[in-house]
Amino acid sequence: MKFLKFIIGILIGVHATSSYAQDIELFQQFNGRYDYTAIGNTLNPFENNLDSSFCFPLESSSANLILSGSTTVVAAYLYWAGSGTGDTSVTLNDIPVEAIDTYTVDYTEPLSDTLTYFSCYADITDIIVSEGNTTYEFSDLDITDALTNSPGFCSNRTNFAGWSIYVIYEDASLPLNQLNLYQGLEIINRNNQEKIILIDNLNVIDNQGAKIGFLAWEGDNSLNYGESLSINNNVLSNPPLNLSDNAFNGTNSFTNSNMFYNCDLDVYDIQDNINIGDTSATIKMTTGGVDEFGVFRADLIIINNIVTVLNSQLPDATIALDSYTINCGDRTVNIDYTVYNINSTDPLPAHTPIAFYADGVLIGQAMTQNEIPIGASETGNITISIPSSVADTFLLTLAVDDDGTGNGIIIETSEINNLDNELIELLVVPPIQTLPSQLTCNEGFNSGTFNLVQILQSALDTTIEAEFYETLSDLEANQSEIINPEAYSNSSHPMTVYAKVDHPPCYDVYAFDLLVENCPPYVPEGFSPNNDGKNDWFNIQGLYDIFEDHELKIFNRYGTLIFEGNNDKKWYGRINRGLNNHGKLVPVGTYFYILNPNDMNYKPLVGWVYVNY
Q1: Phi/psi of residue 585, nearest 5 degrees
Q2: Are strands 433-434 and 506-517 parallel, antiparallel or unpaired?
Q3: Tell me, what's the pLDDT at 415?
Q4: Which long-range contacts link 520-525 to residues 24+ away (Cβ below 8 Å)?
Q5: Contact, 585 vs 528, CB < 8 A?
Q6: At residue 519, what are phi and psi to the nearest 5 degrees?
Q7: Whole-angstrom distance, CA of residue 230 vs CA of residue 217
Q8: pTM greater than 0.85
């Protein structure tokens, strides 16, 4: 049988401290073959508005839980409420129970102080699973101080206490349902005679057998003045237990009882009041009217939550960021993610779109590859470039069932759980630190030998390790590292070398220029051109390929020019000038030389060289 059920009751979210009245909104959702049942009882011996003989509630009351053997309990909640600011420690079947949360609302009667009412909530799933079908006795709710210190509760006949247990269960015989729990605490009274509650995140597949039920506190059977409960502007009734003008009248539809004093646990048939395809419903409650004597009167009613159970066959796409990788100085992010279809009643189709945003800017798109069954998942990976218009620290948003415009293409059991967010901080490389330039002697063609390791360590006064690169792009790409930095020859003049030093989580970059200069050449005192492979030519060290425009002239002892050389023409002791003896070796003796470096920083050098064989 396909059906839809609504339950209004006390389902309060988990908080650390007491909370004031809160609008009812979605708290938790179950999707699958789920339904619920509820039990509970009042602690008022009579309806407080009809019987003024009591002020204090009963010490305990009980109710029976009967579940089919085919059901499996998945969640159970104990709710208790009453006059005052609350008692957070109670007992259920001699088991102590502590409230997870307490909510309160205030109400001021005419000519009276402000009165406060509370409700508490606790998760008792373990107790219900352990105890099973049995009689549950609720006790140790103590509101004595509140009733004693604030006489207005009893004089105004708003002294009440009661409890209820909701049990959510799974049964293979049920249709696939969506069960939504809406939490909050709201009040209607003579000061606030109408309350409209919009419940969303619905998906009505079939409205056959639709029902509405609620748990409310402090309603009085005798105060049916202007009282109504409606959904989508249709007033509800369930005669003879609940009439259209007296919804909050101390009844329990689960047991067909009219002695659930100042508490209401009722069920209504509303299949004609909600339509297939609806995604929300409007619930309205009213109270207040003039009696037969012309006196305005109103009931005090406290509402705590709404639960919807819908026949539904839908997927529910969610996404989670598993991990991400960023590199120093790189504006790309490698993302590992998982798309889930856990809270669902139907497979998630293949090619469901996924969008990736940085501070709301679309930066990448992907899609699921395969159909994802109920309860299953699929992993994915994407590398995304972050545009320069996005700050270095940004909010990364992963959105499944998002076509890149914020719109989805899949109808889901829930449309509010498609996002995962993570604050990302790119690893920005600090500004390049410039070190002093390094100068060495030209060893030829404007090249010199540099110990890059020693240069960096001396400049930083540390033995820190580093990697060296000829270009900044190589450093950033971590490629073409200089292999032998202890004896490096520059390839251009001047040349900048870059050093990368680890500095977690990133690294530091240092840059320094390599410069070469022409150092003074060293002229030997002699040589022996006898072709023995040793000292066979006039080897002026630091000259050739360094002073590339130099001129060398050799004269004999008579002052006759016998040789002229340059960078490409070295003197091997042979004559290349004069009228005779071209190409012949000069005799043993002393010869005069003039070396003109043709360098503005050096004057011509003159001297004697001895030639011997």
Answers
A1: -70, 145
A2: parallel
A3: 82
A4: 520/602, 521/546, 521/547, 521/595, 521/597, 521/605, 523/593, 523/595, 523/605, 523/607, 523/609, 524/609, 525/608, 525/609, 525/610
A5: no
A6: -90, 160
A7: 18
A8: no
